[in-house]
């Protein structure tokens, strides 16, 4: 493992208590001090100071040698990071990194092109949105911490795909202020597409702090750096349909109550919407929050039901299908990734400029929230029927009562607001969308999830 040069050398004695140090005759001078003659004491002091200087010089030389060794030999050094003594990747600003950021952000179309920082670019939605922007000629750079919430190999494969299309994804956390500020120093972003988050409704019971870290602290950091930037970017970010929580009024409209979250995940997304209001109000940031409704599709998230069911069905393993109160089937307004991407891009295109400058608001700024759903909920057993059809395998269904872990019985989006303002029109039904997903899944993993084979060109499927 590599360490930063400054941290790689430390003196264990500094961590000891004074009494422990007393018991430890570390220098010859200290031993000589115990002889009591005056000359002895002077000689001892002289010897002691020379020894101290020698020790200092030796330590410095040693430090330089070790630093040089680490700088030359560390295998995980890349253009933007090194691994510290805790095994954590740390951002490091280099000329090469700056060059790659600039190249990636170079637009390939006229002066109306956007220059977008996409956070969570190694994620499912982030990859698709980055590709869509790049393909139409916008400047795009990605940011992702590549955490291991789910298989990192899939995130790395998405990164490879992005790199092939000219999108550089820098590795780092949205809580890293130095990294964000460095990005803003190198490029004047017109927009941030903020998709980095701790996703998943049920995982919040296992790892609550990861939700606070990413969805609250990380979001604030994005807003802090954006508010201080000059010019300030417009921000579009991922909220969630889960903010509707226990709301029973259907379909869910943006004006419905969202003060009854059923999970910590939902609560952090709701908190994000309130925090967005504050930054819009005080600093004039233009902010658009998108409430995504159970997004699925090729290159999706393995933690989601449609993905894990596919994996288990192919392995012949039983799948748990939750049933709601009174044995009712659960339902979701499953929304296909291509439709979501169109909604994201339209949100970027219609976002007005932020009005702040030098951290101060100069006038009111745009603040929006949109539902991005499909408007036709489908039950979970029907989702499994469709998967069986395209996988050609019968699922081993186990119906169990919905655990009390943050789930909600159904979701259903009213998208009239997005239709009117973004011209958002979802066109993919669950059958068509899952067919595309299964095609991608088989091309990426093969028909047995224990091995990874590349059967075809899965890139063509997106
Ligand atoms: O739209 C949203 O707001 C949220 O959509 C999904 O959350 P969820 O709808 O719960 O999606 P899945 O985890 O894929 O679950 C889909 C359905 O399958 C059910 N399910 C899940 C897992 C399982 O083993 N069995 C099962 O029946 C769930 O109860 C739910 O009704 C995402 O995981 C969230 O990150 C996102 O914010």
From TrEMBL:
GO cellular component: Golgi cisterna membrane
Domain of life according to the entry: Eukaryota
UniProt KW Transmembrane helix keyword: yes
Keyword terms of this UniProt record: Membrane, NAD, Transmembrane, Transmembrane helix
Source organism per UniProt: Ceratodon purpureus (Fire moss)
Name of the protein in question: UDP-glucuronate 4-epimerase
InterPro entries with a match to the protein in the record: Epimerase_deHydtase, NAD(P)-bd_dom_sf
Family per similarity comment: Belongs to the NAD(P)-dependent epimerase/dehydratase family.
Residue ranges crossing the lipid bilayer per the database entry: 54-72
Primary location group: Golgi
EC number(s) from the headed UniProt entry: 5.1.3.6
Phylogenetic lineage: Eukaryota, Viridiplantae, Streptophyta, Embryophyta, Bryophyta
Catalytic function, reaction form: UDP-alpha-D-glucuronate = UDP-alpha-D-galacturonate
GO molecular function, one term: UDP-glucuronate 4-epimerase activity
The NAD-dependent epimerase/dehydratase domain, residue ranges: 116-353
Subcellular location: Golgi apparatus, Golgi stack membrane
Mode of membrane association: Multi-pass membrane protein
Enzyme class, UniProt record, top EC level: isomerase
Pfam families: Epimerase
């Amino acid at each position: 493992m590599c360490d930063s040069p400054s941290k790689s050398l430390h003196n264990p004695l500094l961590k000891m208590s004074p009494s422990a140090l007393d018991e430890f005759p570390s220098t010859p001078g200290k031993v000589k001090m115990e002889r009591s003659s005056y000359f002895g004491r002077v000689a001892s002091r002289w010897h002691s100071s020379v020894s101290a200087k020698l020790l200092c010089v030796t330590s410095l030389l040693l430090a330089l040698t070790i630093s040089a060794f680490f700088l030359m030999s560390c295998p995980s050094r890349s253009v933007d990071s090194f691994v510290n003594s805790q095994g954590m990747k740390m951002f490091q600003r280099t000329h090469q990194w700056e060059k790659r950021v600039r190249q990636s952000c170079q637009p390939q179309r006229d002066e109306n092109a956007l220059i977008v920082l996409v956070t969570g670019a190694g994620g499912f939605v982030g990859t698709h949105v980055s590709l869509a922007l790049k393909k139409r000629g916008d400047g795009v750079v990605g940011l992702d911490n590549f955490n291991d919430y789910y298989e990192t190999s899939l995130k790395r494969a998405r990164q490879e795909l992005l790199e092939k299309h000219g999108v550089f994804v820098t590795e780092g956390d949205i809580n890293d202020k130095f990294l964000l500020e460095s990005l803003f120093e190198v490029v004047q972003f017109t927009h941030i597409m903020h998709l980095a988050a701790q996703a998943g409704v049920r995982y919040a019971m296992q790892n609550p702090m990861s939700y606070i870290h990413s969805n609250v602290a990380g979001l604030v950091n994005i807003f802090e750096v954006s508010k201080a930037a000059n010019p300030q970017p417009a921000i579009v970010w991922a909220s969630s349909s889960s903010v509707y929580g226990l709301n029973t009024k259907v379909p869910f409209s943006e004006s419905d109550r969202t003060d009854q979250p059923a999970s910590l995940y939902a609560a952090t997304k709701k908190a994000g919407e309130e925090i967005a209001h504050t930054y819009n109000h005080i600093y004039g940031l233009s902010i658009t929050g998108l409430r995504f409704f159970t997004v699925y599709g090729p290159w999706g998230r393995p933690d989601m039901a449609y993905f894990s069911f596919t994996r288990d069905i192919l392995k012949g393993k039983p799948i748990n299908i939750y049933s709601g109160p009174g044995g009712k089937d659960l339902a979701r307004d499953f929304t296909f990734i291509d439709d979501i991407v169109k909604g994201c891009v339209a949100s970027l295109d219609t976002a007005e400029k932020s009005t702040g400058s030098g951290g101060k608001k100069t006038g009111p700024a745009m603040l929006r929230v949109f539902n991005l759903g499909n408007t036709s909920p489908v039950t979970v057993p029907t989702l499994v029927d469709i998967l069986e059809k395209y996988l050609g395998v019968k699922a081993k269904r186990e119906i169990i009562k919905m655990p009390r872990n943050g789930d909600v019985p159904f979701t259903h989006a009213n998208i009239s607001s997005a239709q009117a303002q973004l011209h958002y029109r979802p066109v993919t039904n669950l059958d068509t969308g899952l067919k595309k997903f299964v095609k991608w899944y088989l091309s990426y993993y093969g028909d047995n999830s224990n091995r990874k084979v590349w059967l075809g060109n899965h890139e063509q499927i997106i």
